[in-house]
Fold 5-formyltetrahydrofolate cyclo-ligase.
Amino acid sequence: MNAHLAALLAQHTVRHVLLYSAFGHEPDPAGVRELWPAQYYLPRTEGLELRVHPLPAPLIKHPYGFLEPSPTAPQAEPGALEAVVLPGLAFDLRGYRLGYGQGFYDRFLPTVPQALWIGFIPQDLIVPALPTDPWDLPVHYLVSEQGVTACYSRTS
């Protein structure tokens, strides 16, 4: 999957990428760092918001068990991001995401309208359609082990 993600980033000449720290059964996008030269970032939860931290950064364990940057790590402005790689329990073919219900990415994505939004998900977790709420925003691309699927165009 990371090779497909790297190819998509290369196609769009993306140099500033927000990844996520995988936990549970989520696919891990960290391998893309070895495949495409860019500045990578990780999010950190603070209250109901996501903060953006450039890598490398000191990491601590989040209460849910995944690693996130320490509160003392340097922060970056979300406006620097050119791509956001998102986890999900499932995505649909339109690019809508089923998350974990806390709304972190629902609140964060409108702050980075300039970035490509990329769902990183195993193919068997891509479904024809998910129920949506008015605040849900579709990703532009889905990346799975089978390749890249375009979902939503900014011009559509």
